[in-house]
Queue: 3 jobs
Job 1
Amino acid sequence: MPYAIETQNLTKYYGKARGIIDVTFQVEPGEMFGFIGPNGAGKSTTIRTLLSLIYPTSGTAKIFSLDCRRDAPEIAKRVGYLPGEVFYYDGMKVRDLLDYSASFYKKDCKDRIRELAGRMELDLNKKIDDLSFGNKKKVGIVQGLLHSPDLIILDEPTSGLDPLMQQIFFDLIEQENKRGATVFMSSHILGEVQRLCDRVAIIKDGRLVKLERIADLRQSSFKRFHIETARPLPADYFAVEGVRELEVNGLTHNFLFRGDINTVAAKLAGAELANFSAEEPDLEEIFLHYYTGEAQAQ
Amino acid sequence: MNVFKREIKAVARTSAIWICAVTGVSVLMMMFYPSFERDIADYVKLLENLPPAMRAIMGLQVQNFASAAGFYSFCLLYALLLGSIQAANLGFACVSKEVTMGTADFLLTKPVSRARILTSKLLASFSVIAAANIVYNLVTVPLVMSFTGGGSLKKVLLLNASLLFLQLIFFASGFAVSAAAKKIKSVLPYSLGLVFMAFALSAFAVTSREDKLRYLTPFQYFSAEYVMANGSYETRFAVLAAVLVCLGVAAAYLFFIRKQIRSR
């Protein structure tokens, strides 16, 4: 089976400004693939190149074995795209826009529009100009899914949606995935990618720095511990294998940990705790400690 | 067909207003003709005393004033000016509005080639220009003929056709620029700038009597003076006009197919 998406040394410069450099990855059909990185890392550039909105400086990108630039209209039949920011024609009603969108595909999308709009609680008779940002986003989602695409490309899909809608949206995407659709989604929130995706590519300063299974990432990823003890402990009490950036300040011990969680648990059991928290580091911390740290270690 | 329909809908209202304005200015000015005709000798004397540059800017060719068709050729100039602005607007906005509104992301990720999108837009714009000219002719030809009392229909039609050709030229220029430009925030300054520059050049070409200058401004390509005298266009300028329109349209395709649609 051919890859759903396949890029080879994809590079894009805007004049002299860096877009992306040598981005190579493959997305399996039926996979949910996350693409994360901080703002300006090159997520949108990659997506826009895949969609042939911009053209690569060098390298190739293929979707369903078709060339993204040459076969763009053919590819577009099978792709649904939800842009990060949604803008639509002045004075159009939601229904007009969705019908216009559907008119490009040679199939009847009426039932599907009704179903999707129902699930997203979207009023089809409102003017798009009058909708809130979140509701415009919903229009974008319905517009991207109404033709039952084989590949769904989402650029920062959940920004602007309230948590309840995010949940509905995730369910919807999962359902599409079960139907057989491949999902490619960019985000700067690790949590939402972790929750949905099978694999994740991490992009930073235009380069792909890591491509990993979410399960492995979770296992190998750091946790940040904040510990307050009732009685003073030796400063090196938590200095076990896997602990990094240990900071001791009186009764508080802060550190990053990666490894077998039982070693820390055993240490914790031997101490008298006043307070304790362990949290997932945010993306920024992963970049700062995990990846740059790893590069230094090698 | 869907893009064509969408495009027509998008420009329908403003185009209707423009068509009324372009036709209305000719009709209104023509209404002055009966009273003008009565005192024609006085008017001609008065106008001949105006400085030549002034006459050129106003588009007055005094020797033609005696006939209704001649007077009409003067009225037409203002219709040409407005019509050119309309067409330039249409051209400049054609592609750029999708980029500035952010709808390019929507349209260009649909299963249609860019060439087809542009063709739909081109045909929609041509339809608008065609409609404008049909309305204009239906209204002005009977009106002018009623004043001339028959005769010189060919000259009136030739005069009127210059509206169509000027609109095509200005549309094509705007169309090419709109496909090439990264972003045009507001269309009007561009179209007003282009048309008035051409108009000023035209006045300058008349006063300076410099024949070469006439190549630079479309307002000189279909000289009313020449039509009134010879009942035809000057071949070299008609050819030049056709070449410009083709070049503009071809350039638009070249630019649009290569265009990079960057996020806003």
Job 2
Amino acid sequence: MVSSFFGLYTTQRSLSTTQTIMNVISNNIANANTPGYSRQKVDLVTSSPYPQPIVGVQGLPGTFGTGAEIDRIARTRDSFLDAQYRIESCTKGYYVERQYAFQNSEGILMEPSESGITAKLDGFFQSAQELSLYPESLAVRTNFVQQAIDLAVVFNQQATSLIDLREALVGDFTDLTSIRESRLGMNVVDINTKLDTLADINRQIITLKGNNVEPNDLLDKRDLLLDELNSYMPITIDETPVGSVNVSLGTNILVAGGTVVNVLQVNTGDADDPAVIELYDPADAGFPPSGPPNLANANSLITNGILGGLLEIGGHDPSRLTIRGMLDRLDTLATEIATEINTLQAGGSFINAAGDLELAGPTYPLLFGDGAGGPPTSAADIRVEQDIIDDPNRVAAAGPTPPLDVEEVGNADQALLMAQLRNGNIAGLGNSTFANYHSSTISTLGVQARSNEEKLDSQNALLGQIDLRREAYSGVNIDEELVDLIRFQRAFEASSRVLTTMNGILDVLINRVR
Amino acid sequence: MSFARITNRLMSNRSVENLHLNLQRLNDLQNKLSSGKNINVPSDDPVGLSRLLGIDETRKQDERYISNINNARSELNTTDALLSSTTDVIQRARELTVQASNQTNGPSELAAIREEVQQLLNQVVQVANTRFGNKYIFGGTRTNDAPYTTAGADVIYNGTQSTGAYQRNIEIGSGVVITVNFPGDDIFGQYDTGSGNEYGLINTLSTLINDLNTAIAAPTAANYDAIRGNIDLLDNDLDNVLSVQTTVGALVNRLDMTENRLQERTISLSKEYGSIQDVDLAKVISDLNFQESVFQTSLSATARVLQSSLLDYLR
């Protein structure tokens, strides 16, 4: 025999189950647009029948069902897609950073235009030709000097801008503050915050799992966090039996369960690699740190992701296109021009204060110097020396031999040699002309920027596809939820109806039977 | 690509992505149209840009060579005109010498002839001291000072000697250098009694004046013969000037040919430059129109798809 009120409990269970399901649906709809949210699904099972099928129960034809109950609220998530997404988003981060640097470099080098080095080189050599026609004209000499200044200035501007760009990305190795405030430094701060949050979430998940509660929303949050961490650098993710994840960089554990084991910290490197990423115990980290690093240089472990891209473009790897590489080429170009022109200057004759030709000689002031009398060492410090600016007659346009008559100011041998340098194959530039050398700098940048852009596009497409597949699996379809809502609304109504009917029966039993 | 399930976020993400892509294409086309250039930054077309820079380098140098050629040609034309007037002078001097060597001319006629020869000498010095722009043409590289100065009867050459570094060179092609000037001493010679350095046309004319003076003082047959002796010298001087003039003519011809070649190359280089860098307007505009309608369509499609939901039909 079963209790008269047996059916009431079945109905009550049904009502509360349906209500719970509607809460889940409501949560799904509310989070339809939440990033990282996975659709939650209620696993319904029939509750244990009455009586328990034990040997010896008599008097009943069989077991009665006791309704339905909720086994678990699970999230729909495909961890394979997650892993794929993370690998590809790491690579995307790498391309994004390179793209940023390349686009800026293209803006700095300004080719093709009338303001780039190519145009200024042309202007300079044109004015040397003009000088070879009119070596005695002060106006032509002044123009020649002006063109030389223009050339030096464009070298200065481009070199300074490239140096600034490098500093903005990875900082200047002589200045820790600049490294901390660089893009790299800022990203490292972000990463540390995320590692902290990850440890927190791990802790909560361990607690909830210990209490046998499915921490769906926390898992979603953690997955999103891991996605983000992976876009910075290639990390390894290991799940543990207690539900937490361990995150490591190479063999160095960053987060183990609820504890942050290592944090990242930037430090000064050298001229080749301005910034070094170190791993510190969180207690020791800081500026200055209070203990030795656990890993003094993690750069070689970070070859991908946002940090990998930044370290590469800001570094000096000769097999890659780096800002340093472009700067080196500008420096070489500037110093080679200076050397060639200065050599001709020292070997020629200028017009002295008396209006006579005078052999310049090796102690003669340079045309292109470093602004302090010495030869220029880079594109950033090349200047036209003040002596020449003050007196353009000091440009040695005339040749040296045979010993010239002091009045032979119409001699333009040196000017012609300067003009002809334009087509000369310069040994220091790998036997290429100045223009070709620079053109090759530009096309290297162009080819790299182009190929990076294409790779970024295809990476975006790939990532988009994975994300769409992930979304197809885990995302919320509102129509679907609405159908479910109606389904369970009907179920709720039906259960209510059962309750009313039962109530009627009990009413008869209790109030009408006398 | 088809999916097991289509979710709302998936639809809106894809729509936004596609709209963005369409807008990007539209923007690229508009950029091309407004700049008129195919290549605005190196990554637009790295290979094209490297060709473009190469073409531009050659083109700009050619422009310079053409301008150098024009410069050289006007100086050479001036030189040519001056040499022509010098040959006129020599021919007149020869006529006068022939006339003076006839003994029917008495001292007074000879004096008149001497006067005219003196004028011719002055004219030669004036020609030799001509400037082109600010340069003295015949002074070698001493372009700031008149090459000839006179002191009494002496006419002395101060320019760069023809044995020295007199050349003013101009580049008319990569590595091709021509000398555009001729030193005065080669053409006109000098008459320097101080150093005894006397030769060339100026020496001949000065000698002729001396011989005329001698004949005026003593009209003997021997002195008339001495005057006649100058005819051969004048012929030599004429040959000398004519040979320089021929060289000038040949140079000008060479300049003309070089310029023609450069002009032709400039035209073909400009065409090639244009074919790489200039936007094909018709194509870009039609692409732009097409892309615009694609964008409009994707907008209206997105608007429709995103609107509809089961909610529209539930009461």
Job 3
Amino acid sequence: MKVLAIDSSNYCMGVSIMVDGTVVGELITNIKKNHSVRLMPAVEQLLEEVQVKPADLDRIVVAKGPGSYTGLRIGISIAKTLAWTLSKPLVGVSSLEVLAQNGRYFSGAIVPFFDARRGQVYMSVYKANGIEVERETEDQIVLFEEWLQENKDRYERFLFISGDLTMHKEGIKAILGDKAVFAPSSSLNARPADLARLGASHEPVEDVHQFTPNYVRMAEAEAKWLASQKK
Amino acid sequence: MENKHEIILGIETSCDETAVAIVKDGKEVLANVVASQIESHKRFGGVVPEIASRHHVEQMTLILEEALNEAGLTMDEIDGIAVTEGPGLVGALLIGVNTAKALAFAHQKPLIGTHHIAGHIYANQLVAELTYPLLALVVSGGHTELVYMPSEGEFEVIGETRDDAAGEAYDKVARTLQLPYPGGPHIDRLAAEGEPSVPLPRAWLEKGSYDFSFSGLKSAVINTVHNAKQRNEELKPEDLAASFQASVVEVLVTKTLRAAEEYGVKQVLLAGGVAANKGLRSSLLEAFEDSGRELVIPPLYYCTDNAAMIAAAGTIAYRKGKRSSLQLNANPGLELGI
Ligand SMILES: [Zn+2]
């Protein structure tokens, strides 16, 4: 089975190709450059390099969020179009679940997160079980400090994995103290190889047309409008 | 195998319509599918970019499939993919651009980034034979421009708005009159029932200029409403709408007529969503009746945003050999051209 995996949901952009369970190509960049310009050429380059034609693909996997709304839509537009036009199955995998894989040898709570501004983060909790990483909570948006306070006694140790670690490190330490462990810089990028591996085993979506990003929260205008209706 | 015909698939997502069309030889429409989001933006009183982008992602592949089905074609039979590159809402444009890139890559087809306004102008080619030199009056929610075209695919913007687009002024005046969004059609309807009896300014700008300005007019309308309220005077909305429309239309028509004469064009094209305005249509028809120049006004469904116009303009670019790379990006400030 030939799997193409695409992740442009966050700062880090990744593409990988897995052939019969072997990752034959992987491309990651972690630079502030436009995903819209670079993602399609990256897919083209990697497929060419490993000599796989678009029509030979058996499955398209995409990181479905949470993350940057625009970034998500770029990757998902490309993935949906490829899956639909080539009549291939499409699989969406949580962007947090992909990042959580980097903590697979940690005993304790694995907490991948992405900054969501104003003290908020997108996050979920995972537990390692052998080499499998099992989900403990849904993907959610929380006020980080509040969440840390409420959950500090729930686990012995916490592993935090995030490209946005630096801006939250002190805040986490202040609440969790020695219970907090921080992943090293080389483990902060979601690996598209993990995305492909997860996507190969997850169930494809029933209807490619209906597939949408997991934004986790409503568009601001929508939320405001709903609030105004309640008054 | 050489193709005798050019079949171009067009994609348009610059604002709040998700649209795909398939056009043969730049003029024969084989499919034209438009999913309008207007209903979901109405409650916000205008287009919300984030909501528009979300809808585009939901609709895009469905609309593509519908267009191919309508034309009875497969991607193998498509010669090129034209997509709106700009101007427009960047987040919305991105959906069309990335979809087009994936499609072009999957089927190894030429990709043609296309200008939205070039599309509006070339919508006319779907209903008439274009004869150059020509002049196009582009009036929409985001644009008010006079474009001189000496020949096919050559654009020279000779006048443009310095502040609000005509469509924007319509929407703001409609809000002042407490009409629902989108306001243009409501003002047009009210105007037909009223008399242009309220004195409002015409912004001619400096002598010889083909530029436009509608913000002064818009403020004048707001002030008139405000003053009438303070003096407890009754102001018929019909008359105010008629007066506002008369001012907009007079400036648009007069400048278009003058430009058509100065540039000696054979044809005058009306383009853009505001081309649906009855007051503008009838004044233009009257003004050009004995001018010796042909006036082309496309039907409503080619005036508002659609992808047939993008495919039509894209065909011109395709013939001229334009090809975009997979690095194509949305460009909200794209300059008019092919
Ligand atoms: Zn338009």
